[in-house]
Amino acid sequence: MRQIAGALVAAMLAAAPVAAQEFTLRASHSAAPTEPYHIGLADFAERVGAATGGRVAVEIFPANQLGNEREAIEGVQLGTVDMAVPANAVFTNFVPDLIALDMPFLFDDQDHLERALNGPLVDVINEAAAGRGFRVLGLYTAGVRHIMTRDRVIESLADLAGLSIRTMQNPAHVAAFNAMGANATPLAYGELYGAIQAGVVDGAEAANTNYEAQKFYEVAPNWAMVSWTVLISPLIMSEAKFQSMPADIQAALMAAGRESAVVERAAYAASDAEKLATIEAQGVTITRPDATEFREAVASVLEQFIVTDAQKRMIELIEAAR
């Protein structure tokens, strides 16, 4: 009798409906599989799979396998890439209003960052992005940014004067370092180590995590912790692709995007804290200049770039979260 009952149960389980996979989304990012971007996307994939009963699968392609950040954004536009996590400094080439997120000294600390990025700011960002054909599912980060230098120790703003500092190819970053007295030098990230080693540039900006991971301390052993910005990295997909999906899947993507962003940001904050000890162990000269004069030097950058209503609203919401 037990055998018959067991057979019946087994037959019932075998006949139980299993949700068929309807969508496979290819997600691109530039970091290694061990870094926070990947941790965030893995969390996103797990949440989406659970929320949709397996109807949506997310395949993650790390380390620029689907192209560099700009190419990945273009892939999202063309439909060859479904999702990407580019640095906002690159994404502003496609959604200019988001340059507001690249302003210097926007966030006081991690708590302020979390309050701002978990609030209505995401909705304003999405309004701007939708007009350019994108959907922002969440806001990842790439750490609090400091300044590395090859020869000169930075103990005050005056020490930056005349130094060639590598920046991303982003007008706000260029303007910020020029305002601080440096000669901002946009340069591809992959060329940075060799450029510092050869003296093409005197230094660059980075977070603890990538400063340590890329061993920049070997060629730029001076680390000034000025916290000049937090690099925001939106998790994006095509607005057309998003709108083509059923409403319940749209809701799952949005919820997973915001929730995974919290996980990713926490991972980056933890990584930055952990890597500082590793940096110190490498004999790096670490300074903590007073940020007041740096903030004062870049005040004009906001006046220069924050001009549209959307940009002003973003800054207002970040200020309100203090």
Keywords:
322 residues; alpha/beta; D-Maltodextrin-Binding Protein, domain 2; nine-stranded mixed beta sheet; 14 helices; 9 strands; 46% helix; 20% strand; globular
Please tally the helical runs, counting DSSP H or I stretches of 4 or more residues: 14
| Residue fraction in strands | 15-25%
- CATH architectural category: 3-Layer(aba) Sandwich
* Form type: globular
**Measured on Cα atoms, how large is the radius of gyration?**
22 Å
Number of domains: 1
> What is the total tally of β strands?
9
What would you call the structural class? alpha/beta
- Parts with pLDDT < 50 across at least 5 consecutive residues: 1-18
Question: How much helix is in the residues?
Answer: 40-55%
Give the N-terminus to C-terminus distance in angstroms.
68 Å
Q: What value does the average pLDDT take?
A: 93
Q: Please summarize the sheet with the most strands.
A: 9 strands, mixed
